[in-house]
Amino acid sequence: MKTMVANARRKWADGLVAVSLLLLGTILIYPFLWMVSVGFERTANVNAPFPPRLIPYDFSLFNFELVFENGHLLRAYWNSGVNAFFSVILSVSSALLGGYAFSRGRFKGKKLLFILILATMMIPFETSLIPMFIMFNNFGLIDTRYPIILPSIINAMGILLCKQFFDQLPEGLRESAKIDGAGEFKIFFHIFMPLAGPITATLAILSFQGSWNSFVWPLVVINSQDLKTVPLFLSQFSQESGTPLMGVTMATAAVSIIPVMVVFLIMQKYIIQSIALSGLKGE
């Protein structure tokens, strides 16, 4: 009897949790669905739909056709994609190498250097914006891709995450490889890197999202229309006497978020693995 009561209570509790999560998920996804709906609303550029509705009153592809008609969005897609690709490569590579060095390396000043790297996380980006602009301007790199890509080499959060990940792997793996005569680079690339898939995917998603959504820094260093990124392209839809074109803006926003969603959906299983492995400590 007690077992039946306990099972019934457990089912009620599980059902309550499921309903609560469903309601929370609906609340969180509603703004995105409304954004897509406004993008398909032909008259949204004249009269913003109110109250918000998920089904367009006057369904049309007009706003999306207007976004793609001059090819500027495709160029912005290309620019953001190239910037994000190289930013991910540099950011993930430096984070993995730095995390391994701080996790398994033995050198003087290791703790102090690690503290200094972590301290950079407390410096607001706005305080370093002007010095970075002056530095890249002195090198003649303003209005190029380099100011957007090169800063991704410094990834303090990535180094911290990688160090914690490598700390959890058994030290016996490294010791066995050293007994077999393997050097540090061989140990890293042939033993630790194959095991670092989850943390690598996590860093790749975070780096890709940060690069793709970056707005302030590209706005400062990019002047040429041919180098505009998707966020900069999106910000240009404030026309018609300064009144934002809501339908076109929402259509552009809906299209611009697709790459981030695709990357996340492809790599989400690796994030789950990374979270699961974070609770395991190798001996």
UniProtKB/TrEMBL annotation:
The keyword Repressor does not apply. The keyword Cell membrane applies. It is found in: Cell membrane. Keywords: Cell membrane, Membrane, Transmembrane, Transmembrane helix, Transport. Pfam families: BPD_transp_1. The chain crosses the membrane at residues 12-33, 76-100, 112-136, 148-166, 187-208, 245-267. CDD domains: TM_PBP2. InterPro entries: MetI-like, MetI-like_sf. Residues 77-267 form the ABC transmembrane type-1 domain. Belongs to the binding-protein-dependent transport system permease family. This is Sugar ABC transporter permease. The lineage of its organism: Bacteria, Bacillati, Bacillota, Bacilli, Bacillales.
